[in-house]
TrEMBL record:
Residues annotated as domain Aminotransferase class I/classII large: 16-375
Entry's EC annotation: 2.6.1.-
Coiled coil ranges: none
Protein name, per record: Aminotransferase
Keywords, ordered alphabetically: Aminotransferase, Pyridoxal phosphate, Transferase
Length: 384
């Protein structure tokens, strides 16, 4: 969001900026979902709902989890929040005491460590590099667990790397977790519908159902249905945890917006063609941006298996000098050079716990992708 604010400020100054920062689809919410929201307003869905969400929405979520993920949850095991972030934050608030540890593999979504720290916990950052496909291994997990470990956070498909854990990789992690009953699992699956090149999304509970009594499944509709501004996410998990989340919501935000909840019922229960079309569009963009970025000297990019980001290494540019004589010492310098020189906004890998990389969102048009990459190539060619 800070990067987007910088882009907006430059645009206000009259600069033409191609924005690869923001993690939201560039197409509108599907019309049938919008119409469901309008109908809900007309029908008077403008009042408070239950703190944990309307019965209709929680039933639709339970049906979705069974239909798409083979996960069985009762309505009382589901809590609706103001975006998935709301559920994650409240889960940490409900469970963390001072000094409790939360294992977070790199590269991580930028909010995880801060939300842990804000709630008195200690983020335990575990480095995962290209050699493991930016994925946590069983050996690294085992080494990181202590008696104070409270949670493991898994994000698959991953933001920012696009890494997708296979069933066998998840099984190995789950076998470690089975030996450590004090460790709960938070599995953030918000990008589940965007997987490519034969990759498949698998939830940890699909390979190790025995972890159900200490697993919180996080999901939402922002990405799959282009509903970022509607602000609806949800969590599914053990009843005691979900009751605690409900109490926190009661004393903080009261409930999610009623009209948004009604629209999400239509999203989850109606035709899923819009999701398939979005995934196909992102697959096409993924191929194009990977090819264009890999053609730029000094930048190396793995093709992501999921989400809508690439996470290229810019280590080949470090040590070079800009036309103004400034040496590029790190990924933040490269990010700022691309913004100021090329008019292309990206996000530094340092913010995701992975220095030497940049995150590009390809949730934008092919025209913008091609123009942006051409401008990046010209900026790189100007380095000395």
């Amino acid at each position: 969001m800070a990067a987007k604010a910088r882009v907006d400020a430059l645009r206000a100054e009259g600069r033409s900026i191609i924005d690869f920062t923001i993690g939201e689809p560039d197409f509108p919410t599907p019309q049938h979902i919008v119409e469901a929201g309008i109908a809900a307003l007309s029908a008077g869905h403008t009042r408070y709902t239950a703190a944990t969400g309307t019965p209709a929405l929680r039933r639709a979520i339970a049906d979705k989890l069974q239909r798409e993920n083979s996960l069985s949850y009762g309505v009382d095991q589901i809590v609706v929040g103001i975006g998935a972030k709301h559920i994650i934050y409240n889960a940490f608030a409900a469970t963390l005491n001072e000094g409790d540890e939360v294992i977070i593999p790199t590269p991580f979504w930028v909010s995880y460590p801060d939300m842990v720290a804000l709630n008195g916990g200690t983020p335990v950052i575990v480095g995962c590099d290209e050699s493991s496909g930016f994925k946590l291994t069983a050996a690294a997990l085992e080494k990181s667990i202590t008696p104070r470990t409270r949670w493991l956070v898994l994000n698959t498909p991953n933001n920012p790397s696009g890494a997708v854990y296979t069933a066998s990789e998840l099984k190995a992690l789950c076998e470690v977790l089975m030996r450590h009953p004090q460790v709960w699992v938070m599995t953030d699956e918000i990008y589940e519908h965007f997987v490519y090149a034969g990759a498949q999304h698998v939830s940890p509970l699909q390979v190790q159902p025995e972890l159900a009594d200490r697993t919180l499944v996080i999901n939402g509709v922002s990405k799959a249905y282009a509903m970022t501004g509607w602000r609806i996410g949800y969590g599914a998990g053990p009843r005691p945890l979900m009751q605690a989340l409900g109490l926190l919501i009661t004393q903080s935000t009261t409930c999610a917006t009623g009209v948004s909840q009604a629209a999400v019922v239509a999203a989850l229960s109606g035709s899923q063609q819009c999701v398939a079309e979005g995934a196909a569009l992102f697959a096409q963009r993924r191929e194009r941006i990977v090819a264009l970025v890999n053609a730029i000297d000094g930048i190396r990019c793995l093709a992501p298996d999921g989400a809508f980001y690439i996470f290229p290494s810019v280590q080949g540019l470090l040590g070079k000098s800009t036309p103004q004589g400034k040496q590029l010492a790190n990924d933040v310098d490269v990010m700022m050079y691309f913004l100021e020189q090329a008019g292309v906004a990206t996000i530094d890998g340092t913010s995701y716990g992975q220095p030497g990389y940049l995150r590009f969102s390809f949730a934008t048009s092919l025209e913008q992708i091609e123009q942006g990459c051409a401008q990046l190539a010209a900026a790189v060619a100007a380095l000395k």
